[in-house]
C-alpha cells in the first residue's frame, strides 16, 4: 500500500470512496475463509459434565458451543508472524542497581523474576531432546479471566480467557491500546435446559448446591479443552519455531500467572469460596485471618501451603467415587467430613490432570489482585465503615465529609480526578475512584471522629495509603520490599486496633444507600421466588470484622513480587481494560450468537494489527533508502516552521515552554496599576535581581535580593515587557526510569491590560515543589519547598556590564511561597504517621518572603496539596490580593506524598530513576525493632504460636522446610466484580507516561 501511494501514477480518485468502507468491512467479515489469515485456531466444541443424582443415578449433560482456540496455534502465530515478538525477552536476567556503596536487586518485569529464572535454569539443566541442538527458551504465558456484563441494559454476559506473553515488557502489555492480548476461549454459562434434564432423570428439580457443582465441572471442562494434549506435549518437549530474529529455537511454553478475582480463583483452585480455609494458596483458617501481619500468620503461609500432591488428588478421587459410584449426597455428612476441613470441592482440576506429572502446581500461578482485593475490596470495606461511623455521629458529619472530598483539588490529567459530589451515597464508582479516595482520605477524615479516635484513624489511613503505594510500585528493590514487609505488619496492627478498640465505640448501621440497595435486591428476589421472603425496611446493624480472604491476601504481596515481578505486570486491571474491546465489539453485533460475531471481528483485528506492524517495519526500512521524488517547496518548509515555532516538545529537556507568549505586558504598567496589591509591592526589585543573577551566573537567593538596587540600572529588558504563558510542561525521570510530564498552569491569567484569576481547574495545577536547602545552601535529603505559580514568564534581557550585547531569553516562574507549619516542625512521615503540613507565608510589609521567582529548571515536579480542612479558611495572611483565593486561603495544606508512585518515592528516597543528589534512601522510618514479623496485638503467645488444626491434618501437608531469603486505566465497575457470583454459586456468604529506558543512567 505504501508503494502504491508513492507511485507516480497513483490517483486518489481511483480509490474506494470513504463512505463505502463500511460495506467493504462487512464483506470482509462475512467472507469465509477470511482472506486476511489462514487458520486462527478457533474451535467450537462440546464438553461432557457428570452430574451426581443419588444412588445408582448419574446423568451426563453435554453443553455445546464452547468456543476456544488452540494455545499452540496462537503461540506459533505470535512468535513466527507478529513483528512485535522481536521485542520478546527470551533470555532472563537479574537486575541490580548501585547507589553509593549499596547494591540492591531490582524487581519489575516477569522475565527478570525469580520464577522465570528458575524455569529457565531448570530447562537448561534438562537433557536436550534427542537429535536437537537448538537453543531452548521459556515462553511465559499469563492468563486473565473474568466475566463481564456486555451492556448497561440486558443480561448478555461474556466470560473470556485472555492470554498474554510475559516475555514482552509490562510497559507494553499493560497498555490497552497496544492490544497485545489474545482471546483464547469463552467460558459459557450453564445451559438453561439443565434443570429439565435433572428433573427428567431424578424426578425433581436440582437444588442450588448441585447447580453450583455443575458450574464448577463446566469450568474445569473448558480448561481441559484449552490445555489439551497438544499443549501438554509442547510443555514437555517444546516446539521448534523460527523467531523474529530468524533463528530457530525450541520454545517451551510455561503457565506463569493466572489473574482473576476471588470467586474465579476459588473455581480454578477447586476450593469452596469463603469456606473454613478460604485461601487458594494456603490452609489458613478463616477464624485466624485477623492475625494478618503477625509471626504466626507468616508461618502459616510458608509451612501450610496448598500443594497439588498425591494426598489432595487421592482425597478428590475418593470423594468422587462416593458421589458418583456409591450415591452419597453432594451436601451429605460424608462429603462434608472429607472436604470441609480443607474447603475443597469434589471437582477434578483440569490443570492438575494435564500438567501435574510435568512438575506443574496450579496453586503457584494464582497471583494477588490489587484491584479487587484492595481498591474495591479491603479499602472499600474500610471506607464504607468509616461512613457508617460518621452517620452515627449525625448527618452533619457526613455532609462535612462530602464537602471535603468535593474540595480536594485534582492532580495531573487523570491521576486524581474530581471526587464524586456525594461519596457517602457510593453510586456507580469505579476502582479508580476508590483509589483516588484512598490517596486523599488521610486529609479528608482529619479530626472528624472526636478527640478520642481521630488521631488513631488518621494513623490507620496513613498506613493504608503507604501500603498501597508500596504494593503498587512498578519497580521494587530489596529495600522497598523490606519496607513493604514492615508496613504490612503495621497495617495488621492498625486494623486490629480499629476493629477491636475503635469501631465498637460507634453504633453503626447500614447507610441509607445500603438499606435502599438491600430493599431493591429483596424486591427483585420476590419477583422470581415462589416463597414469601420476609425483610425489614429498618437499617440493620453492621459490624466491622477482619476474617476475610481479601485481607489475608495482603500478606502475600512481597512473595508475589519476588516470584513474578511487580503487581502491575499481572493486575486484573489489564484484563478489565481488555473487556472494553469486547463491549465495543458487542455493540456492533446483532445480539444473536454474539460470541461468534465477536470472534470474527477479533480475528480480523488481530490480523490487521500484524499487518500494521509489518507495514511499520517495512516503512522504517524503506524510508532509509528512498530518495524523495522532489525536494520540499519553500512554502511547505515555511508552513512547517510556522507550525513548529509555537511549541517544540522535547521530553529529554528539563521543561518545555512555548516560543510565542499568550500575552505580553509592560512591567511599568502592571506595577503602576496594581501597586496597592501586596504581591506587587516588591515585584520589580525581585524580578530585576533574579534576571541579574541569571545573566551573571550567580545563584538567586529566595530570601532576599543579592544585588543592591542601583545594580538594576545596568539591566536592559527588551521593550520593558514580560511575556506570559498559561502552561509549562515539566519533564522528569520517574523512579522506574521512564520519562513523564507534569503540566504546570499559571494561577493568574494575564492580558496586555489586566491580571485576573484563572478558572478553578487551572488553579489546581499551579503548585510546584523544589529541592530544599539548609542555611549553608546544602541540599536537604528528601525535603522540598513548595510554591504556587502565580505567573509563567519569559523576558529578553542583557547586562550592560556583560561581554555580550545580545539579548538572552530567560524563563521565569513568579511564585508565592509556602512555609512549614511551625507547630508541626519535623514531626511527619512514617514515624509519626502524618503527612507534612505547609501554609502560605504571612505577608510582611517590610519583607519579601511571601513571593519570589524560580528558574523552571529547578522545579522537581508539580505538587498536590490538600487543604487541612480542620483549620478552615483565613484572609489574614494576605489582604486584598490577586494572589489569594477569592474565599480566602486555608491556614494549612497537607502535602499529598501518596498522589502517585513517583511522588511517594521522591519523599521516601531511593528511586532507581531519581539520580538527583537529594534523593537518598531513608530506611530509618521503617525500622520495626527487634523482629520483622511481630505477634498480633491482643493475642496470647499460645494462640500466636500455632493455629488450631488436627495433627492428622498437619501431617497431610507438604511442609516447606526452607524459606528463601529473598523474599505496582482502566475502569472496573462494581457490577462486573459480582458477575462470577452467579456462575460460582453462593456456598457461603459472600500517568505516568511511557518512554524509552535510560540504559546508561548509572554507567560511569
TrEMBL record:
Q: Which organism is it from?
A: Sistotremastrum suecicum HHB10207 ss-3
Domain of life here? Eukaryota
Q: Where is the composition biased (Acidic residues)?
A: 940-951, 963-1004
The protein's name is: Uncharacterized protein
Q: Name the InterPro entries on file.
A: Plavaka
According to the UniProt record, where is the region Disordered? Answer: 622-647, 940-1004
Amino acid at each position: 500500500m505504501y508503494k502504491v501511494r508513492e507511485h507516480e501514477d497513483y490517483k486518489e480518485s481511483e480509490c474506494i470512496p470513504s463512505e463505502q468502507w463500511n460495506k467493504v468491512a462487512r464483506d470482509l467479515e462475512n467472507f469465509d475463509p477470511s482472506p486476511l489469515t489462514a487458520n486462527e485456531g478457533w474451535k467450537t466444541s462440546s464438553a461432557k459434565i457428570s452430574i451426581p443424582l443419588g444412588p445408582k443415578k448419574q446423568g451426563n449433560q453435554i453443553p455445546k458451543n464452547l468456543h476456544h482456540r488452540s494455545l499452540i496455534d496462537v503461540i506459533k502465530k505470535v512468535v513466527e508472524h507478529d513483528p512485535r515478538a522481536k521485542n520478546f525477552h527470551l533470555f532472563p536476567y537479574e537486575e541490580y542497581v548501585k547507589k553509593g556503596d549499596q547494591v540492591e536487586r531490582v524487581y519489575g518485569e516477569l522475565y527478570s523474576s525469580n520464577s522465570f529464572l528458575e524455569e529457565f535454569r531448570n530447562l537448561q539443566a534438562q537433557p536436550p531432546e534427542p537429535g536437537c541442538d537448538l537453543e531452548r527458551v521459556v515462553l511465559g504465558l499469563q492468563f486473565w479471566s473474568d466475566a463481564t456484563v456486555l451492556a448497561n441494559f440486558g443480561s448478555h454476559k461474556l466470560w473470556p480467557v485472555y492470554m498474554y506473553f510475559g516475555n514482552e515488557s509490562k510497559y507494553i502489555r499493560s497498555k490497552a491500546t497496544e492490544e497485545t492480548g489474545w482471546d483464547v476461549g469463552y467460558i459459557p454459562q450453564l445451559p438453561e435446559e439443565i434443570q429439565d434434564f435433572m428433573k427428567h432423570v431424578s424426578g425433581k428439580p436440582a437444588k442450588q448446591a448441585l447447580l453450583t457443582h455443575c458450574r464448577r465441572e463446566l469450568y474445569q471442562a473448558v480448561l481441559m479443552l484449552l490445555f489439551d494434549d497438544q499443549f501438554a506435549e509442547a510443555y514437555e518437549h517444546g516446539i521448534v519455531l523460527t523467531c523474529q530474529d530468524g533463528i530457530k529455537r525450541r520454545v517451551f511454553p510455561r503457565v506463569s500467572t493466572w489473574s482473576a478475582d476471588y470467586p474465579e480463583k476459588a473455581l480454578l483452585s477447586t476450593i469452596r469460596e469463603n469456606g473454613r480455609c478460604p485461601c487458594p494458596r494456603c490452609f489458613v483458617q478463616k477464624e485466624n485471618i485477623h492475625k494478618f501481619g503477625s509471626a504466626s500468620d507468616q508461618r502459616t503461609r510458608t509451612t501450610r501451603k496448598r500443594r497439588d500432591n498425591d494426598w489432595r488428588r487421592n482425597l478428590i478421587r475418593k470423594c468422587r467415587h462416593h458421589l458418583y459410584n456409591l450415591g452419597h449426597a453432594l451436601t451429605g455428612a460424608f462429603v462434608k467430613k472429607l472436604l470441609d476441613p480443607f474447603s475443597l470441592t469434589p471437582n477434578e482440576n483440569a490443570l492438575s490432570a494435564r500438567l501435574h506429572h510435568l512438575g506443574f502446581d496450579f496453586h503457584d500461578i494464582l497471583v494477588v489482585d490489587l484491584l479487587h482485593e484492595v481498591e474495591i475490596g479491603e479499602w472499600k470495606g474500610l471506607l464504607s465503615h468509616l461512613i457508617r461511623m460518621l452517620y452515627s455521629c449525625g448527618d452533619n458529619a457526613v455532609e462535612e465529609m462530602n464537602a471535603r472530598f468535593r474540595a480536594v483539588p485534582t492532580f495531573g490529567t487523570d491521576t486524581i480526578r474530581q471526587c464524586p459530589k456525594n461519596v457517602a451515597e457510593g453510586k456507580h464508582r469505579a476502582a479508580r475512584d476508590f483509589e483516588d479516595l484512598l490517596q486523599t482520605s488521610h486529609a479528608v477524615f482529619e479530626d472528624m471522629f472526636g478527640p478520642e479516635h481521630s488521631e488513631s484513624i488518621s494513623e490507620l489511613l496513613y498506613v493504608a495509603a503507604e501500603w498501597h503505594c508500596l504494593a503498587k510500585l512498578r519497580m521494587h528493590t530489596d529495600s522497598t520490599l523490606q519496607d513493604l514487609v514492615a508496613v504490612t505488619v503495621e497495617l495488621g496492627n492498625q486494623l486490629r486496633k480499629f476493629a477491636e478498640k475503635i469501631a465498637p465505640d460507634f453504633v453503626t448501621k447500614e447507610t441509607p444507600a445500603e438499606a435502599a440497595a438491600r430493599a431493591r435486591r429483596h424486591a427483585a428476589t420476590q419477583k422470581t421466588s415462589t416463597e414469601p421472603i420476609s425483610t425489614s425496611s429498618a437499617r440493620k446493624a453492621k459490624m466491622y470484622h477482619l476474617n476475610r480472604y481479601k485481607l489475608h491476601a495482603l500478606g502475600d504481596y512481597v512473595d508475589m513480587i519476588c516470584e513474578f515481578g511487580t503487581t502491575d505486570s499481572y493486575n486484573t486491571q489489564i484484563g478489565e481494560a481488555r473487556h472494553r474491546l469486547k463491549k465495543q465489539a458487542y455493540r456492533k453485533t446483532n445480539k444473536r450468537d454474539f460470541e461468534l460475531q465477536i470472534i470474527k471481528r477479533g480475528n480480523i483485528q488481530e490480523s490487521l494489527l500484524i499487518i500494521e506492524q509489518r507495514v511499520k517495519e517495512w516503512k522504517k526500512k524503506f524510508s532509509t533508502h528512498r530518495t524523495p521524488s522532489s525536494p520540499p517547496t519553500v512554502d511547505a518548509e515555511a508552513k512547517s516552521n510556522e507550525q513548529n515555532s509555537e511549541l517544540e516538545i522535547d521530553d529529554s529537556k528539563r521543561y518545555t515552554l512555548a516560543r510565542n507568549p499568550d500575552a505580553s505586558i509592560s512591567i511599568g504598567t502592571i506595577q503602576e496599576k496594581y501597586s496597592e496589591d501586596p504581591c506587587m509591592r516588591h515585584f520589580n526589585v525581585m524580578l530585576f535581581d533574579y534576571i541579574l543573577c541569571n545573566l551573571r551566573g550567580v545563584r538567586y537567593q529566595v530570601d532576599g535580593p543579592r544585588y543592591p538596587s542601583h545594580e538594576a540600572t545596568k539591566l536592559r529588558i527588551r521593550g520593558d515587557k514580560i511575556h506570559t504563558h498559561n502552561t509549562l510542561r515539566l519533564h522528569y525521570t520517574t523512579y522506574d526510569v521512564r520519562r513523564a510530564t507534569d503540566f504546570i498552569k499559571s494561577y493568574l491569567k494575564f492580558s496586555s491590560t489586566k491580571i485576573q484569576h484563572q478558572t478553578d481547574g487551572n488553579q489546581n495545577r499551579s503548585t510546584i515543589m523544589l529541592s530544599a536547602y539548609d542555611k549553608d545552601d546544602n541540599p536537604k535529603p528528601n525535603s522540598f519547598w513548595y510554591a504556587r505559580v502565580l505567573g509563567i514568564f519569559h523576558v529578553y534581557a542583557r547586562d550592560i556590564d556583560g561581554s555580550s550585547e545580545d539579548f538572552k531569553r530567560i524563563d521565569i516562574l513568579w511564585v508565592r511561597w509556602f512555609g512549614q507549619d511551625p507547630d508541626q516542625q519535623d514531626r511527619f512521615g512514617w514515624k509519626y504517621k502524618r503527612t507534612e503540613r505547609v501554609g502560605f507565608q504571612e505577608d510582611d510589609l517590610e519583607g519579601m518572603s511571601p513571593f519570589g521567582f524560580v528558574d523552571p529548571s529547578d522545579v522537581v515536579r508539580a505538587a498536590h496539596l490538600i487543604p487541612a480542612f480542620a483549620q478552615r479558611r483565613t484572609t489574614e495572611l494576605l489582604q486584598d490580593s490577586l494572589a489569594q483565593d477569592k474565599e480566602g486561603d486555608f491556614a494549612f495544606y497537607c502535602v499529598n506524598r501518596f498522589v502517585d508512585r513517583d511522588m511517594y518515592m521522591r519523599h521516601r528516597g531511593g528511586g532507581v530513576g531519581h539520580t538527583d543528589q537529594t534523593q537518598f534512601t531513608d530506611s530509618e522510618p521503617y525500622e520495626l525493632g527487634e523482629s520483622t514479623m511481630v505477634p498480633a496485638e491482643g493475642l496470647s503467645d499460645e494462640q500466636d504460636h500455632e493455629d488450631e488444626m488436627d495433627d492428622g491434618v498437619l501431617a497431610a501437608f507438604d511442609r516447606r522446610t526452607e524459606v528463601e531469603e529473598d523474599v505496582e486505566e482502566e475502569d472496573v465497575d462494581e457490577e462486573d466484580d459480582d458477575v462470577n457470583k452467579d456462575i460460582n454459586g453462593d456456598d457461603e456468604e459472600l500517568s505516568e507516561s511511557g518512554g524509552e529506558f535510560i540504559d546508561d543512567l548509572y554507567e560511569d
